[in-house]
User: Fold these one by one.
Assistant:
Number 1:
Amino acid sequence: MFAADDEGGRAIPLGVRTDTTRFEARAVLLPRSILLLYTDGLVERRRRSLDEGIGQAADLVGEGRDVALADLAGRLMTGLAPAAGFEDDVALLLYRRPGPLDLEYSADLDHLAPARRALRGWLEQCALGPEQAQDILVAAGEALANAIEHGHRDSPGGLVRLRATASVDRVEVTVADTGTWKPPRPSSGSLRGRGLALMRALLEEVSVDPGPTGTTVRLRTRIVHDEPAHP
């Protein structure tokens, strides 16, 4: 699940001996990979190798690498639970690199450039190809501009939220406003009003969900990569 320089950080459990020197080791968490931290109660069973339990946990993480982390945590608890239930306390922590990008700001065009910069930096952490990253950035920029310029045309000062998440094979960007939906009406000979068509030309899935409290635009696309990403 990650690449480690060595295993020099291994030691006996905390609290067993207070006079034991603790060593450190460094590991590199690869883009779009998942880190699982857990207590031994999750994988340790009587009359079963500890390696077997660890391997089972790793397999479940690999199988669920595309699902939300909250759902993956549930799968781990269900898939690793003994028939009679856990005999020990269990705690686990899941982290996917990079973590979600979550921004909220007032509907002002001055915030468009900072939002795009933040999204560009986040996409770089995902280790996407430059062409695909640019497609996502352009599509998201259109959604942000529409939310500010059209969604809040009658209610300046409302809020716009940008959220981006990545799994091993997919990126999703959500742009939500608190304004009102304005159907696109492209005018003849003009490029205005064609933002939605541009988004759909650049990405695999684009959905628009207008409602009484605002509009949510969801942009999804499968990641194109030459080498398989690490689960």
Number 2:
Amino acid sequence: MAGTTDGHVQGRRLRAHGARAGAGAAAAAAVLVLSACSGGSEDGGAELERGESGVMPALERPGPEGFTNTEVAGVTVDVPDDWETQNEGGSLCMTPPGQPACAYGSVRLTPHAAQNHPQDWPSKGDAFHDDDGWAHETDQCRSLNTAASGDIGVDSAAISYQGLFEHADGLKSNHTLWNVTCVNDDAFEVRMWFLPISDVLLYVWSADSQYDAVYDQIAASMDTTGYQD
């Protein structure tokens, strides 16, 4: 897809080599001490134990303070510790405190998003580029005052921002924001980060402005390395 890169940034692994003992009585004594403590090698060298491959095993990346790294289908994101999470149906739903699950203010992470959607949304017709592409069904208002009722219609919608957003694995998604106006003059904002090649969707159903920075932090932490493998 135009404007999207699905490339990965290669990481580097560093290997530390053990020091070899020099000649002389002092060095020999040092080798004896090291051998007694850590089982040094036969030639007098002291080496760190690293397993059969000679490389330290990778450790799971912890989330930043106040966040927990959470996974669905090999895709990981950092979720605020005080948010509720639901992992079902191949999606991870993250809900802020005090709100109904997966409703106002929530974030949903869905791998294989268009592949498993009956209407191929949001890939079909590049819907993520369209004013009316903010949802697969665009007839219900989702503002704070109307989300629970589900019977208030939508008057209009327009893209307020579109660009590229880089995630933790180096991939750049199509990042789109929509302003949606309801028939009762309420309004709400929808946010989407979509990787059309990888088919991974991160989606804010109806944004709560107090979590603007949190949404960006969750999106920045998204890592599809395990999913790609």
